[in-house]
Fold this sequence. Notes:
Blueprint (H helix, E strand, L loop, with lengths): L1 H8 L3 H16 L7 H7 L5 H12 L3 H8 L7
Amino acid sequence: xxxxxxxxxxxxxxxxxxxxxIQYALKLLADQDRPVTTVAFDAGFNSExxxxxxxxxxxxxxxxxxxxxxxxxxxxx
Length: 77
């Protein structure tokens, strides 16, 4: 399976899984009441730092920056 992902997606298995997790996290971040730490763990990351690192790599923003930019009225969240 890993070899197929490497060939078809052009990324490693772990990158593929983490990208999938980030896509799920983007949906979870729409819930303003859900803390970013909770989003990280609910999306399947084992640490907040790993979540932040991969989120920024994929989106170019931190989760809080994304939330502020995408969801109106979340400047303080």
